[in-house]
Amino acid sequence: MPSETSPAGRRWVERTRARAQRLLLAPSGPLAALLGRLATLQAADRAVAIGALAFSALFPLLIVYSAVAPVGSAHDFAQHIVERLKLTGAAAQSAREVFAPSAAVGHSITVIGFFLVIVSSLSLARSLQRACAARRGTCCGSR
How many domains does the chain have? Predict the structure, then answer.
């Protein structure tokens, strides 16, 4: 390394300082662009909305499925849910109770309830479609 007082040493220090600034500031360009794009897409708002729609559509759909499925496969289905979500203790027992078939649950399924589950599932699909269209920058209006 040249001496800092010599002209070559000063050039070396300036080049090193410029490299360090480029390395430190380089990530801010792509990072700023990414954060700006996420803000434009309203990513946090869309994620919360899609999560709420998924919760309100998928779990009732799973409950309806477990109620109308044959007894043997419904017990297997409840056990599969417990294993897949890695539930233990009280959470596993609650899942087995919710997804296990019973005559009361099977008789309580109505046309209106089934219709509401289908509507909420379609709402989830539409919300996912809008999020994907916003990501691509295309219009997702009705045709």
Answer: 2
Is pTM beyond 0.70? Reply is no
Q: Which amino acid is at 41?
A: L
Are 86 and 120 found together in one domain? Answer: yes
Burial class (CB in 10 A: 0-12, 13-18, 19+), 57: buried
* Shared-domain flag, residues 70 and 22: no
51-92 per-position pLDDT tens digit? 888 888 877 777 777 667 666 665 677 788 888 889 899 988
Range of the domain at 20: 1-41
Are residues 34 and 60 located together in one domain of the fold? no
Read off the tokens for 112: 């209106």
